[in-house]
Design a protein that fits this description.
50% of the residues lie in helices and 7% in strands. The protein is mainly alpha-helical. The protein has one domain (10-146). It has a two-stranded antiparallel ribbon. A two-stranded antiparallel sheet has the order 2-3. Strand 2 and strand 3 (84-85) form a beta hairpin. The longest helix is centred in the first third of the chain and has 21 residues, at 10-30. The chain is globular, with a radius of gyration of 15 Å. Mean pLDDT is 90; it is low at 1-6.
């Protein structure tokens, strides 16, 4: 198993982007409402967590870089910029699925499970080490390893 992740692995990234594109097509039929409140990025304040896989985090970091700080103390996504996602094109599954729209709430968990299973299979197929971790903790580890 590759313990580095998909750094420099365009075939894995291409497949991940395809999974994300399939999700976007499915979301376009569900049409959840986003009010751009940034509640989804202020984890601690709104009582939720963002989880990610190692390949998704590698993909994000390779395309956007590591943030200056993790956001662990504030409980806010370190990529939140001026109330909006600063890494929208490379954000993770959990970010893409989460909407504050109450009419969409019952669709969120099954949709997440469906696409998470595909991402997990991507790890296996490409021989990538699979890790599923809380996002801010995973970013903290990456920042610590960089020091």
């Amino acid at each position: 198993m590759d313990t580095i992740g998909p750094m420099g692995r365009p075939e894995a990234w291409s497949e991940l982007e395809g999974i994300y594109a399939d999700l976007e097509r499915e979301l376009s039929t569900l049409r959840p409402l986003c009010r751009q409140s940034s509640k989804c990025c202020r984890f601690k304040e709104y009582g939720h967590q963002l989880w990610t896989t190692s390949a998704e985090l590698d993909y994000l970091v390779e395309h956007e870089g590591l943030p200056v700080a993790s956001g662990s103390e504030s409980g806010t996504c370190p990529y939140l910029k001026d109330g909006l996602c600063g890494v929208r094109d490379h954000r993770m599954l959990g970010c893409r699925i989460y909407f504050c729209d109450p009419a969409y709430a019952s669709a969120m968990a099954p949709l997440y499970e469906k696409y998470h299973a595909r991402i997990k299979e991507l790890h296996r197929r490409h021989g990538l080490s699979y890790e599923y971790a809380e996002f801010l903790t995973a970013v903290d580890r990456r920042l610590g390893a960089q020091s």
